[in-house]
Amino acid sequence: MAKIVGYIAASLDLFIADRDDKLDWLFRYNDMDFGEHHYDRFIETVDTVVMGRATYGWLVENGAPWAYGDKRVFVVTSSPIEAPLGPLTTTGNVDALIRQLREDPGGPVWMLGGARLQMTFMERGALDEIEIYLMPELLGGGTPLFPPTGFRASPTLISAKAMDRGCVRLHYRFG
């Protein structure tokens, strides 16, 4: 059974994008020393990437390169994607996708971006762990890390670590 994980950065006031849906505030930390927790090391462990249509749309709109190489990629959407950036599979059925991911013997599945999709997985008991990187920025508004849906949980803290430039890494387990 594949482990489904989140790996996401948020501002100190818990937004993942600013009011204009920009990440400039986060890109200022691209040269930060994440050590063993660096994105490049994390992505090497991942076999499958799952993202929502909004995250995929952000990649398209911002000219982001397709960074997922030979990884299996799912985009959760009910509409087709014309001329995709890279090899991907679309699905509108989250429950069927979760069943498929749980049946796979492969390595971790990464919930890329998308607070709404991560919340959908949490509500179904399908997010096993999450790494949240709190960045020392106050955005004053934007896309919340977790949208208010009424979902409640008490995840277990695996670790908390102060990192370079005032960032804090929080690692939680669900269930």
Describe this structure as you would to a colleague.
- With 175 residues, the chain is α/β, with parallel strands linked by helices.
- The chain has a single domain (4-173), classed as Dihydrofolate Reductase, subunit A (3-Layer(aba) Sandwich).
- Helix content is 22%, strand content 28%.
- It contains five helices and ten strands; from the N terminus they run E-E-H-H-E-H-E-E-H-E-H-E-E-E-E.
- The protein has helices at residues 24-27, 39-45, 53-61, 94-103, 115-123, and strands at 4-11, 15-17, 48-52, 72-76, 89-91, 109-111, 129-135, 143-144, 156-162, 168-173.
- The strands form two sheets. It has an eight-stranded mixed sheet. A two-stranded antiparallel ribbon has the order 2-8.
- Helix 3 links the parallel strand 3 and strand 4 (72-76).
- It is globular.
- The protein starts with a strand and ends with a strand.
- The mean pLDDT is 93.
CATH topology: Dihydrofolate Reductase, subunit A
Secondary-structure content class: alpha/beta
Number of strands: 10
Largest sheet data: 8 strands, mixed
How many helices? The count is 5
Number of domains: 1
Overall mean pLDDT score?
93
CATH superfamily: Dihydrofolate Reductase, subunit A
The radius of gyration computed from the alpha-carbon positions, rounded to a whole number of angstroms, is: 16 Å
Low-confidence stretches: none
Classify the beta-strand content into a percent band. 25-35%
Overall geometric form: globular
**Which CATH architecture is right?**
3-Layer(aba) Sandwich
The CATH class designation is Alpha Beta
Q: Give helix % range.
A: 10-25%
Gap from first CA to last CA: 15 Å
